[in-house]
C-alpha cells in the first residue's frame, strides 16, 4: 500500500500538451478512477506513474520516494492493460508466475503466491489450461493474478475491462471491488466509462484536455460538479444545459424564467447556464408537493424511449424536433430537455405537458468559464418575494443549498 503524488506534472509531445500541470494526491489504499473522454490524457498520466514515460516537468512520488526518474521495475507498481497479453503457449500457472520466475524467486514461494493469487481471482482448477481454453473474463483474471503475485504497493489498471462484453464487464467491476477490499492496495484505474468510475471508486479524478477538473467521491462529482464539464460528463443520460442571463429577478432563458434572489450568488457573470438532470424534472401533475419546484414550463413530448425501469422523454420547448438526436445531444440543445419518468407513467408522444424542475437540484454555471456557481436555488427562493412559486406549489427552502 502506498500513496501516489503527482506534483505539477506536465507531459508535452512536441506541440501537444497531453497532461497539463497535474496535481493529484492519491491516498494509501484508495481506489481512484481517472476518467475523461478519449485523448484527455488519462493514459499519459498513468504512464508517468508507471514509469513508462517521463514527465516533461513535475515530480511523481510513490510512498515517500521520488520515482520521477526510476524505471518501472523499481517503483513497486503492477500494471494491467486493456489488451491482455498472455503467452499463448504457456499454461495459466506459467503465465501468472512468469515475472517471479524471471526474478528467480524460490519455487516454493512461487507456488504459494500463484495459489494465493488464483484463489483471489477465482481461477482454481484452471492453472493447467492454456489461454485459448479460457473465456475473455478468465483471461483478464489471469492478467490480474499476474499483477497480484508481484505484491505491488500500487496497482495501475488501464481500461482492463474494455474488451469484455457488457455483462462480463459489470460482473468484473464487482470482482475488482472485492479484490480491492481483499488486497487493501492502492488502485489507480483508467476508464472513459463514467458508470464504471461511479460504481467502483473511492474518488473519481475527472480529466479534460490534459487538466484535472475535479477529484472527489462519486456522489460529490454527481451532486456538486465543480464545472459544466464534470456536470455533463458524470451521470447518464447527461445533464440538460440551457443558456440564460442573470437578472435582478433570477435567470431568463429563451424558453422559461427561473425566479430567485441572485444577490448572494458568488459570481460577477451575467451569462449563466442552467443545468438540470433528467431525473430532476417532473411532470407537474406528478410533482411531489414537498419538493420545491420551479415555475411551470410548457413543453411538448417529442420522442419517448421506454427503457424498462424508466422512460426517457425528449421534450421540445419550441416545437423543434429532437429526432435523430442522441440523448446527449438532446440534453445540450437549448430548445430541448430530456427527462426521465417512472415506467408506469401514462404519457404519449406529441402531447402537451407542463413540467417543473426540482429547485434544490438546479445547477448554475458561468457560461464563459463553465465554473459552478451554485448547486440548488431552493434556498435562494426563501429570500424571494411571494412572486416566486407561480407553479402554485409552495416553494420551500431546503438542503440543496448554495455552493460555498
Ligand atoms: P487518453 O488515455 O485519455 O485517451 P492519452 O493520454 O492517450 O489520452 O493522450 C493524450 C493526448 O496526448 C492525445 O492528444 C494523444 O494524441 C497525445 N499522445 C499520447 N501519446 C503520445 C505520443 N507518444 N506521441 C504524441 N502524442 C501522444
From TrEMBL:
<dbReference type="Pfam" id="PF17912">
    <property type="entry name" value="OB_MalK"/>
</dbReference>
<comment type="similarity">
    <text>Belongs to the ABC transporter superfamily. Carbohydrate uptake transporter-1 (CUT1) (TC 3.A.1.1) family.</text>
</comment>
<dbReference type="GO" id="GO:0016887">
    <property type="term" value="F:ATP hydrolysis activity"/>
</dbReference>
<dbReference type="InterPro" id="IPR015855">
    <property type="entry name" value="ABC_transpr_MalK-like"/>
</dbReference>
<dbReference type="InterPro" id="IPR047641">
    <property type="entry name" value="ABC_transpr_MalK/UgpC-like"/>
</dbReference>
<dbReference type="InterPro" id="IPR040582">
    <property type="entry name" value="OB_MalK-like"/>
</dbReference>
<dbReference type="InterPro" id="IPR012340">
    <property type="entry name" value="NA-bd_OB-fold"/>
</dbReference>
<feature type="domain" description="ABC transporter">
    <location>
        <begin position="4"/>
        <end position="234"/>
    </location>
</feature>
<keyword id="KW-0547">Nucleotide-binding</keyword>
<dbReference type="GO" id="GO:0005524">
    <property type="term" value="F:ATP binding"/>
</dbReference>
<dbReference type="InterPro" id="IPR017871">
    <property type="entry name" value="ABC_transporter-like_CS"/>
</dbReference>
<dbReference type="InterPro" id="IPR003439">
    <property type="entry name" value="ABC_transporter-like_ATP-bd"/>
</dbReference>
<comment type="function">
    <text>Part of the ABC transporter complex XacGHIJK involved in the uptake of xylose and arabinose. Responsible for energy coupling to the transport system.</text>
</comment>
<dbReference type="InterPro" id="IPR008995">
    <property type="entry name" value="Mo/tungstate-bd_C_term_dom"/>
</dbReference>
<feature type="region of interest" description="Disordered">
    <location>
        <begin position="382"/>
        <end position="404"/>
    </location>
</feature>
<dbReference type="GO" id="GO:0055052">
    <property type="term" value="C:ATP-binding cassette (ABC) transporter complex, substrate-binding subunit-containing"/>
</dbReference>
<dbReference type="Pfam" id="PF00005">
    <property type="entry name" value="ABC_tran"/>
</dbReference>
<keyword id="KW-0067">ATP-binding</keyword>
<dbReference type="GO" id="GO:0008643">
    <property type="term" value="P:carbohydrate transport"/>
</dbReference>
<keyword id="KW-0813">Transport</keyword>
<protein>
    <recommendedName>
        <fullName>ABC-type D-xylose/L-arabinose transporter</fullName>
        <ecNumber>7.5.2.13</ecNumber>
    </recommendedName>
</protein>
<dbReference type="InterPro" id="IPR027417">
    <property type="entry name" value="P-loop_NTPase"/>
</dbReference>
<dbReference type="InterPro" id="IPR003593">
    <property type="entry name" value="AAA+_ATPase"/>
</dbReference>
<dbReference type="GO" id="GO:0140359">
    <property type="term" value="F:ABC-type transporter activity"/>
</dbReference>
<comment type="subunit">
    <text>The complex is composed of two ATP-binding proteins (XacJ and XacK), two transmembrane proteins (XacH and XacI) and a solute-binding protein (XacG).</text>
</comment>
